[in-house]
Amino acid sequence: MTFQTGNVLEVENLSVYFGRLPGSLPVVREVSFTAVGGQTLAVVGESGSGKSVTGLALLSLLNRGLSKVTGSGNFYPGSGPPVDLLHLDTRKMRALRGDRVAMIFQEPMTSLNPSLTLGYQVGEALRIHRGASRRQARAEAIEMLERVGIPDAPRRADSYPHEISGGMRQRVMIASAMISRPTLLIADEPTTALDVTIQAQILDELKKLQEEMGMSMIFITHDLGVVAEIAHAVLVMYAGQVVEQGPVRRVLERPRHPYTRALLASVPRLDRPKTTLAAIAGRIPDPQQPIAGCRFHPRCPYCVRGLCDVREPELDDIDGIQSVRCVRWPELEAA
Amino acid sequence: MLTFILRRLAFLVPMLLVVTFVIFALILLLPGDPVFAILGDAATPAQIAELRQKLHLDQPIIVQYLVWLKSVLTGDFGRSLRTSELVSDMLLTRIPVTVELSLLSLVVSCAVGIPAGVIAAVRRNQWPDLVFSTASLAGIAMPYFWTGILLMMLFSVHLRWLPPSGYIPLFQDPLMSLKLMIMPALTVGLPLSAVIMRQTRNSMVQVLSQDYIRTAEARGVSPMGVLFLHALRNALIPVVTVIGLQIGSLIGGSVVAETMFSLPGLGRMVIEGIFQRDFAPVQAAMLIIVIGVLLANLLTDLSYAVLDKRVKI
C-alpha cells in the first residue's frame, strides 16, 4: 500500500448551511485545514461547535436536501489526480467512501446493523469496492478482526452486534473502516461512549494501525486528554469557526485563544487535586443567531466592550505554525 | 427451538377448550330452534321430544358440550342436519378453498403493502408518500363487501376479464382456479395491504434514521443496498407482528369473500350453517378456523427468531 507522507487533504473555506432559507447562517464557517499522511489532526470543540458536521460534510453524509456545503476539499487518494470532495458527484463519492476515505462514529452501540453478522459488516467494503467474493471478504474480515484485538475472531465473524460489548463493537467498527486500508480516516468521537480503560485501548489500536498503514486521521473529539494522546496537530472549533490551530504541543502548552485556555482549564487534573474544576459560563450560541464581533465574546473573561463585540477577529498567523482568532492575543500574551 | 414449539402446542389445548366452549355456547344463544328448522311447523310434540332427545338438546349445555367434545376427539364431527353429509367430509373439501384464499390474500397484501411502504418511506412527505398514505386510509376504511362489489363491477361487468364468481379446485384447472381467486384475494388482501403499508412505512422511516444506516452509507453501500440489505431486514420485524395480528381479520374477510364470490370454503360453511340452524358444521368449521389462527400466531412468533437476531428461542 502507498505510504503517503505529503498532504492528504486540503480543506479550504468549508462552510455548511442548514435549511434552504436565503437568510440562514452557516453552522460551519470558512473552515480551512490540512491533513497530512501518517499524522493525526484533532478537531476539538464542545457539542454544537460544528466539528461533527465538518466531518460529515467531507463525505457528503449530510442530508443533501437540507444542507448546503461550500468551499473546496482537495483529496489526494494516493494514486491519480486529487479530487475535490466537496464537489464530487454522488457516484464518485460513493466509490471513495469506505475505500480511500473511511469514517467511524461515536456510538458503537447503534452504529452496527443488528441483523447482519460482524464478519459481513467488516468485509462489506471489500465486496463493494474490490469485488471480493463472500469467502475472500470473510477471510480478510477475520484477519482484520484479529488485528484489532477481537479474541476468537473466526467465531465472532458469525456473531451479531448484540452479542458483544460496546468496546468490542467499536473495535469492529474500526476493523470495518480499516479493512480497505484507507488513505484518510475520519474518526468522529470514536471513544466518547466508552469507559476510560477501553478508551485507552482503542486509541492505542488506532495509533498502531495508523503507523502500520500510514494513513492520515482526522480525529474529532471534545476530550483534550485524548488529543494529547493521539494528535499531531489541533484545530480548535467554536460556534462553527476555527479559533486556534497549530501543532499539538504548542496549542496545549501555550494556548493563545481564551476559549482554548478555558477548555484546558476545564480538564480535570490528578496532579492538582485541590483546585475546583473550571467551567465555561454560558452556552454555545445558536448558529442562526447573529453575533456582532467575536463569536466567543459573550462568554469570554477577557472581553473588552467596544472592541470584542464590534470587531470580527481574523485567524491570525502567529509564527507560521500556530494561528489564533482573537484581536487581543498579543496583549493577553504579554500579560 | 423444539421445546419452544412443543410448549406452545401444549398451550393450544386449554386455549382450544375455552374457545370451543365459547363457540358452543354462543351458538345456543342464537335465536331459532334446530328442531323446528328440521321438522317444520307441523311437527307433533312427540316428534319434537324424540328429536330433542336424539340430538341431546334436552340435556344441560355442559353435557351437550362434553358429548360433542368426546365425538370430536374421536374424529367424529357429526352429520349435517340438512344434508346428512358427514361434517368431516365437508371439512376435507372446504379447508383447501379457505387455505388457498387466505394464502393468496396474504401474497396480495404483502406484494402491494411492502413495496408501497418502502416507497412512501423513501419519499416521505413527498407526493408518493401522500398518494400511498391516502390510498391506504381508503383501503382500511372500505368494507370487504363493498370492495368486492366494486371489483366485480370493474373486472366482470365492465371489462369482462374475470368470471364473477365460482370455484374450481387448484389441481383440476390451475389457471381457471387462479382467475376465479383473483377478485376474492384482492377483496381480502387489499385492506390488509393498507395496514402492512402503513407499518412498513413507519418502521422504514425509523430504521432509515438509525446510525447503522449512516455507517453503511459511509462504507459506500449503494442506495439500493442500503434500502434492501441494511434497512428492510430490520424494518420488517414489526411488519411481521402486524401481519400475525391481522390473520384473524384475514379469516373474517374470507367469510365475507367466500359468501360474495360463491366459494365453498369454511367461511361459507359457517354462514350457511348458522342460517339453517345446522350447528354441527358451524362448530366444526369454527374449530378449524380457531386452530388455523392459533397456528398462524405460532408461526409469527417463530419467524421472529429468523428475522430478529436478538431473539433466541
List keywords for this structure.
heterodimer, A: 335 residues, alpha/beta, 4-stranded antiparallel sheet, 11 helices, 12 strands, globular, B: 313 residues, mainly alpha, MetI-like fold, Peptide/nickel transport system permease protein (chain B), transport (chain B), membrane (chain B), MetI-like (chain B), transmembrane (chain B)
Task: Tell me the layout of helices and strands.
The complex is a heterodimer of chains A (335) and B (313).
Chain A lengths: L6 E12 L7 E11 L3 E5 L6 H8 L8 E9 L7 E2 L5 H7 L4 E4 L13 H12 L4 H14 L5 H4 L9 H13 L5 E5 L7 H18 L2 E6 L2 H7 L2 E6 L2 E7 H6 L4 H8 L50 E2 L5 E2 L4 H6 L1
Parallel strand pairs in A: 3-8, 3-9, 6-7, 7-8
Antiparallel strand pairs in A: 1-2, 1-4, 4-5, 9-10, 10-12, 11-12
Chain B lengths: L1 H28 L4 H6 L5 H10 L6 H13 L13 H36 L4 H15 L2 H15 L15 H35 L2 H8 L4 H38 L5 H10 L3 H29 L6
Helix pairs in contact in B: 1-12, 5-6, 5-8, 5-10, 5-12, 6-8, 7-8, 7-10, 8-10, 9-10, 10-11, 10-12, 11-12
Membrane topology (chain B): Multi-pass membrane protein
InterPro entries (chain B): BPD_transp_1_N, MetI-like, MetI-like_sf
Protein name (chain B): Peptide/nickel transport system permease protein
Provide a descriptive summary of the structure in words.
Chain A is 31% helix and 21% strand. Chain A contains eleven helices and twelve strands. In chain A, a hairpin with a 7-residue loop joins strand 4 (67-75) and strand 5. Chain A is globular, with a radius of gyration of 21 Å. Chain B is mainly α and 313 residues long. In chain B, 78% of the residues lie in helices and 0% in strands. In chain B, helix 5 (87-122) runs antiparallel to helix 6 and helix 5 packs antiparallel against helix 10. In chain B, 35% of the residues are buried. The mean pLDDT of chain B is 87. Chain A binds chain B through residues 59, 61, 94-99, 102-103, 105, 107, 110-116, 124-125, 128-129, 160, 162, 173, 176-177, and chain B through 210-212, 214-222, 225, 229-230, 233-234, 307-310. Chain B: Pfam families: BPD_transp_1 (PF00528), BPD_transp_1_N (PF19300).
